[in-house]
Description:
By secondary structure, the protein is of the alpha+beta class. 21% of the residues lie in helices and 35% in strands.
Amino acid sequence: MRLAPALGILAALGWFTALLAPPSAASGIMLDDPKGFQGIAWGSSLTAATDLILTETGEHVNGYDLKESPPPLGDAKVESMRFYTYDGAFARVIIRYRGKNTHEQVMVYLQSRFGPIERTPGQMTRGLNQQYNWRGNDTEINLTYDGRGERGFVFVESRTLAPRFNDSLSETGY
């Protein structure tokens, strides 16, 4: 019977297509917009913050690291938090973490703090690359997790100031 080889080819094609598929993504409406991060309002100057140190300077963008270890997100211990300003106005925080267990703790924290992720029936919420998004009136949170490398990144940013980061990119991408 020739049906078995045909089914094998279809199964292989299905697996190959799944590998090329875009990462899973889910979003949710932010229940409680923080209008900043850790009590620092969007648009604030970070130059007088005593717990931050300037570590990255540019024409428009400056990056600040915490002098001490970053605080956890709920129960999740994170590797780093870098605070960014655009033309002196606080606009973004990038949080980095590692590990599947840490990722699950970060997800529990974000969903308990900002609301559950909206899951469409049939949507993948596991996989090699996962993306999640919470959007409020002033704040947007984007989480990307690479399951293969077990690395996660959380962007917490001002919806009005963060788009200005794109303004400082050249048209050639360099």
